[in-house]
Amino acid sequence: MYYYQSNLEIQQNRQAYESMYDPNHILVQIDKLMDWNSVYQLLEPFYPSTIGRPTIDPLIFVKILMIQYLEGFRSVRFTCKQIQQHATYRWFLGISPTDKVPCHSSVSKFLRHRVDPDVWEALFDHVLQWIQEDGFLSPDTWAADETELKANANKRKRIQVIQTMAVKEEEDVLQLVNEKRQQHGKKPLAPKAEKLATKKMICSTTDPDAGLSVKHDPRGLFAFHDHRIVDTLHNFILDAYVTAATVPGHRILMGRIERVEHRVGYSPEEIVLDAGYYNARLARELEKKGILAYMSYRRFHRKEHPDCRSVKFQQVTDDVYACPFGVKFTYSTSTRSGYHEYKPAVKGSCVGCPAAKGAKDRVFRVSVHQDIYERMRKQRLSMRGKVLRSVRPSTIERSFAESKELHGLRFTRYRGVRQVQIQVWITAMIQNLKKWTKLRSLQQYGLYLTYQMEEKKKRKSSHSS
User: Fold this and answer.
1) Residue 456: predicted pLDDT
2) Is the CB of residue 209 less than 8 Å from the CB of residue 416?
3) 123, 42 in Cβ contact below 8 A?
4) What mean pLDDT value characterizes the chain?
5) How far is the C-alpha of 65 from the C-alpha of 265, rounded, in Å?
6) What DSSP string runs through 352-375?
7) Is the confidence at residue 199, as pLDDT, over 90?
8) Distance (Å, whole) CA 103 – CA 100
9) Sequence-ordered list of residues with C-beta below 8 angstroms from that of 375, at least 6 positions apart, any chain
10) Which residues contact 46 (CB under 8 A, 6 or more apart)?
11) pLDDT at 460
12) DSSP 145
């Protein structure tokens, strides 16, 4: 049967700790800001109203988990032991000195079996909504990145699985290729039918949802990726999404931006990304959405002679390029792989060249997305791009560092992507609450660091200059 403590009962229990608890503790500040009635509304559907014995107040379980993630305790068992001997923790729970702290197994069952994982995302959304109502979020600039979370799985227990997947030709690439071919009087390529392909995958027998990552270990270890979006004004976390370590960030970024847009009601004017998001398709989608993207340049390894690299070719006209040694390259064809091929205007011009590899002429290839690459380069080298380059270390990288150093997010506590997602949601919510309480505490000293106040400061500085 669903049971919860009344506010009067909680206040009576807290009177016993008046001379023992720390009024300046971060949990006391969080308790003043939180609307616990909305938390009760999220938890009530998972408990029967009239059947069975009265339950422990579910809000106590939520507060125990908040204490664990705030202090970075490794286990629920250790957290319950700390609560037994810490007056401020007991004050935060609202239990009397004679009440027992709930058993650690009850907290674990509440987290894993009783409550749906989507509740934690809804709770994160509520906290973010309260922060937005206070005016601490900015629609100007966001930053996105991903970090690796080591999975709770033995890297030596692995099996090889053959996975069958459908391979479909990209329609936008084929359209760009056929446009170029038709300009030169060549026959357009017909679209290929979808086909099935097999791929060998190394999976963990301990946690099948984890992906193999060779980023920090040559032999590979199993891990997850935490894809995160933060607001650069006060570094509030807007989204934190967990996938296997084999899923790159540029594939899911647009979907997460739409999710945050649904959450806060707007999309950013600018977004800051690192080299892992250097992708032409992503840049084109961001451009269509009207978002200025700063992407760090990614250097792809090519087996080219240092004196005859692709970046050293000069474009003379639309379909004519000149190599570093002065050889003229003209358009030859466009392939399904998404490249325009250029060959020497005079056959055999590369024979005897010191940078030639073999007796054949070189084939110079240009991507069909070269126009978007050029616009990305201009944005990166612009004055605004140089300013945005300095944003990442103090925002998204700092957010990841805080999660790992202070809140125990360097390793996953649970197995399965849904359980790991719960850990990430609670950690992100705690980080936002800490920042929110700090900004609210500064208001009593006359410091209102809201987005509207920051805009006024910018206008005054621009008028004075």
Assistant:
1) 57
2) yes
3) yes
4) 88
5) 29
6) T-TT--SSSPP-EEEETTHHHHHH
7) no
8) 9
9) 283, 287
10) 58, 114, 115, 116, 119
11) 53
12) E
Question: Which residues make beta-bridge pairs with 317?
Answer: 320
CA distance 30 to 28: 5
DSSP strand pairing (221-231 vs 320-322): unpaired
Phi, psi of 239 (to 5 degrees): -160, 145
Candidates 345, 344, 342, 321; CA nearest to 333 is 342
Q: How far apart (Å, rounded) are the C-alpha atoms in residues 125 and 24? A: 26
Residue 326 has pLDDT above 90, yes or no: no
Question: HSE on the CB side for 61, CA within 13 Å?
Answer: 23
pLDDT of residue 325: 86
d(CA 149, CA 244) in angstroms, rounded, equals 10
Residue 442 CA: distances (Å) to CA of 17, 231, 237: 27, 19, 20
**pLDDT at residue 450 in the model:** 79
Sign of CA dihedral 436, 441, 447, 448: positive
242, β-bridge pairs: 226
pTM of the model: 0.89
Q: Which two three-digit tokens encode residue 19?
A: 């001379």
Q: What percent of the chain has pLDDT over 90?
A: 45
Closest CA to 363 of 336, 335, 383, 398: 335
Alpha carbons 178 and 234: distance in angstroms, whole number: 47
- Span 431-451, mean pLDDT? 87
* Tens of pLDDT, residues 384-416: 988 888 888 889 999 999 999 999 898 999 999
- Residues 426/431/437/439 CA torsion (nearest 10 deg): -150
Contacts of 443 (CB under 8 A, 6+ apart): none
Choose between 192 and 241: higher pLDDT: 241
**CATH-assigned architecture of domain 133-299+374-451:** 2-Layer Sandwich (3.30)
Give the span between the Cα atoms of 341 and 187, in whole angstroms.
Answer: 15
- What are the structural domain ranges in the chain? 7-115, 133-299+374-451, 310-372
Q: In 411-450, which residue ranges form alpha helices assigned H by DSSP?
A: 417-442
Task: Find the radius of gyration of the CA atoms of the chain.
Answer: 28
Tokens of 306: 């240092």
pLDDT tier at 6, thresholds 50, 70, 90: confident
